[in-house]
Design a protein that fits this description.
- By secondary structure, the protein is an alpha/beta fold.
- 33% of the residues lie in helices and 21% in strands.
- The protein folds into two domains: 195 residues, Periplasmic binding protein-like II (D-Maltodextrin-Binding Protein, domain 2), CATH 3.40.190; 148 residues, D-Maltodextrin-Binding Protein, domain 2 (3-Layer(aba) Sandwich), CATH 3.40.190.
- The strands form five sheets. It has a six-stranded mixed beta sheet with strand order 5-4-6-17-7-18, sandwiched between helices. It has a five-stranded mixed beta sheet with strand order 11-10-12-8-13, with helices on one face.
- The longest helix is centred in the first third of the chain and has 25 residues.
Length: 390
């Protein structure tokens, strides 16, 4: 009798364990990210169909539980569509069980102009946080903001703040984000080393970019046709120039697009009448405070002035990019400067605020120190910037 009772109890325990396992397998909560359509031809393997599905009614890619690296790789291999790939990566990151402020995986949307800087920032972040994996994905600021709204991205490095219509779209979608300006950069105009023009007024820059002024003779140089070189279409500096300098006007019809900084430098170096631009990081070699140490063998950087009467024409040195007042109270400010921002989704993991904290830290080796070392102006640190000796 006692033996029968024990066996019965064993069966009940076994049954309870089986039920618990069944509930655990079938009852895992689902998470989803927006995906307007599933790319044509995508069929989830049979061993993943209990985990991954596409909900056409809500237009979301859904995941139950977490993905192993192998499963993520399998899903990513099903299509080359970038939106689909971001959705898969977002689901994988969102369900990372061991994520903390210093560990886990996160894709960072980066304006193409900021990619060299972002690589240095990630290198510094991972130096002390070896369990963190940050994947840099180049995309325009507008695209990155759209991906944040769609919940396919948790963090972005932007070349501008959010526009009113983008804030409205976030509010409508119920998306909470935090944005903060963290550094200041500038458009560094570069010309051929033999170019006799040393500086331009803001209005002259506008007229050159639009094609209204098409010869250097019209701005104080020798008679020589001007050739304008622009960065890629999705580069935030191009958007900045169009909005803040051209004020809606078109670029010169003869302007040529360069895909990389190296291509831009090569184009200007080989075109006596050429004019292009770099970031402060990219132009550091030609912007040494000591004039005798500036490398102008490939290009030289032009000084620019505001339209204010009597305004000095200044080079994009750190002190002038943030604005500097001399002993006489004169304000010296480089007019082609812009802010760098981060934007992060609130409430979707601990790694986004962890990386944001790093970017705002002024300690050596942290974000603000990296900005300074790369020749930019860190905005979250107390600094005394020194102008060059004239």
């Amino acid at each position: 009798m006692n033996s029968t009772f024990v066996v019965g109890n064993d069966r009940l325990v076994l049954l309870a364990l089986l039920m618990a396992m069944l509930l655990a397998a079938c009852g895992q909560p689902e998470t989803g990210v927006t995906l307007e359509t599933l790319p044509q031809g995508v069929q989830f393997p049979s061993d993943l169909q209990k985990k991954v599905r596409y909900d056409a009614a809500t237009k979301k890619l859904m995941l139950a539980g977490a993905l192993t690296p192998q499963e993520r790789g399998t899903l990513l291999s099903l299509s080359s569509d970038p939106i689909y790939k971001r959705a898969v990566q977002a689901l994988s990151e969102r369900n990372h069980k061991e994520e903390t402020s210093i560990a886990g995986e996160m894709t960072v949307g980066v304006d193409p102009a900021l990619m060299p800087l972002a690589e240095e920032l990630v290198k510094a972040f991972k130096a002390k946080r070896t369990n963190a994996m940050l994947f840099l994905q180049p995309m325009s600021s507008a695209e990155a903001i759209s991906e944040l709204i769609a919940d396919r991205l948790r963090f972005a490095l932007l070349l501008r703040d959010l526009k009113p219509e983008e804030r409205d779209a976030m509010a409508k979608a119920g998306v909470e984000t935090r944005q903060l300006k963290i550094a200041r950069d500038a458009i560094c105009l570069i010309v051929h080393p033999t170019q006799v023009v040393e500086d331009l007024r803001f209005s002259q820059v506008r007229d050159i970019l639009s094609g209204k002024v098409n010869d250097w003779e019209k701005v104080g140089g020798k008679k020589l046709p001007i050739k304008v070189f622009l960065s890629a279409e999705n580069d935030g500096r191009r958007e900045y120039l169009k909005d803040s300098v051209l004020a809606g006007e078109k670029f010169a019809d003869s302007a040529v697009t360069c895909k990389t900084a190296a291509e831009m430098i090569d184009a200007v170096k080989n075109t006596p009448g050429g004019i292009g631009y770099l970031t402060m990081t990219e132009a550091r070699a030609a912007l040494d405070l000591d004039k005798t140490k500036r490398d102008t063998t490939q290009y030289k950087v032009l000084a620019v002035s505001t339209e204010k009467f009597g305004a000095d024409r200044v080079l994009p040195f750190q002190a002038y990019v943030v604005g500097f007042s001399d002993d006489k109270g004169n304000r010296l400010e480089y007019p082609l400067a812009y802010n760098i921002y981060y934007a992060l989704r609130i409430g979707v993991g601990e790694l986004p605020p962890g990386f944001a904290g790093f970017l705002g830290q002024s300690l050596e080796g942290e974000g603000q120190g990296v900005f300074l070392k790369q020749g930019l102006v860190p905005l979250r640190a107390q600094l005394k910037l020194t102008p060059p000796n004239k």
